[in-house]
Amino acid sequence: MTLIEAVLSTYFDINVLLMATAGLWLFARFLMKHFSFRYAFTSQASLLKFIIVAAISLPILFSVCINQAFLSESVPINLSDFVVSQYIKGNLQMSPLSLEAVLTARQTLTAEITSLDHPITISILLGMLLCALYMGLRSILTAVKLNSSLQSAYPWRRFGNVYFLVSDMVRVPYSTRTFGKRYIVLPSSMLAQSTDLKVAIAHELQHLRQRDVEWEISAALLTPIFFWNPAFHFLKHQIEELRELSCDQQVLRRAGLSARDYCDCLLRVCANRFERPSIFALQIPKVSLVETQSRLLRKKPARLLANRVLSALDGNAKRQSRTTVAVVAALLLSLSGLMAFAIQKPNDWSHDRLMLSTIVNLDRLEQRNSVGLGSQF
């Protein structure tokens, strides 16, 4: 296998595994809502981050191990072999040629991409490349916009490597970072409101503790690579929702704020500020006190705010023991590893595959004979 084929195969595996991870997370969160994890938003966010990292890193790890001969290029058991065995046993009803086309889709697609013989393939690749370049350019422009926003703000205070800035142009407090420095940017109008100021600072400091800004930056860097995959955007937005719910819980637990004052602050900050920005508007990598802008494939900010308020007033936050979280994480990692293992390259010379090849050849021969007989009449 050439380097290009190995990279394409790994990229294919990551995207498939992200889709499978999205389905796994939907099922896992459904179960969590019916057990003690229902309000354990911090644990849920940690588990989701864990399986996202696994979905991206496991195919890369398998590819490196195969390249270094630590693993066989064809794994002994995988999803393709299971499907073939079910077909041979008669548990799967479909045309042999259709089944072969499905099983060889990855090899066919890889061959078409590497050969660049088909005009449609070239057009699709150019389109994806242009979209990726556009998304990459947007990432550069957002970094420039972030730097400009920070430069226009006024220094207020400093706590370690966290710099507090005040801006007349900002309406919603947010936290962000650059190399070696972390920032919390506050609206200048909030300095006269002590309760709101306390809520905003506590909230943004908690985001920095949870390293939510780093996750936001990582997602922005990965977007040009997986921009076309809806599972990536779904998982990204799930992280955004859970980090806010988790942050609210942690702030109310640590900062000594009342749930009513906290919710009042959220409502005051976002009052009459919900908006639908242009699809081409630049979004700088930041984590805000309240999200006020709608985005594609994302829960509407008003609905997310309602969930945050209800969660804060409900007060059913429950800590999960590290042992429980570790057990669930190990289970999810095992399932992710099993899925990553199952989508690896099948063994082309297995007994069931030889039988399938024979059936496919007989089916093709039958079709040719039927065409030949038809032409005689």
Count of helical stretches: 13
Helix content percent band: 55-70%
Strand content: 5-15%
Largest sheet: 5 strands, mixed
Order of helices and strands: HHHHHHEEEEHHHHEHHH
Low-confidence stretches: none
- Number of structurally distinct domains: 1
Based on DSSP secondary structure assignment, what is the total number of beta strands?
5
Cα-to-Cα separation, first versus last residue? 48 Å
Instruction: For the largest sheet, list the strands in their spatial order.
Output: 1-2-4-3-5
Structural class of the secondary structure composition?
alpha+beta
Radius of gyration: 26 Å
Give average pLDDT, whole number.
82
Q: Label the overall shape.
A: elongated
Describe the 3D structure:
With 377 residues, the chain is of the alpha+beta class. The chain has one domain (3-369). 66% of the residues lie in helices and 7% in strands. The chain has helices at residues 3-32, 41-67, 79-88, 96-103, 105-115, 119-152, 194-209, 212-226, 230-254, 259-270, 301-314, 322-342, 351-376; strands at 154-159, 162-167, 174-178, 181-187, 287-288. Strands 1-2-4-3-5 form a 5-stranded mixed beta sheet, with helices on both faces. The longest helix has 34 residues, at 119-152. It is elongated and about 85 Å long. The mean pLDDT is 82.
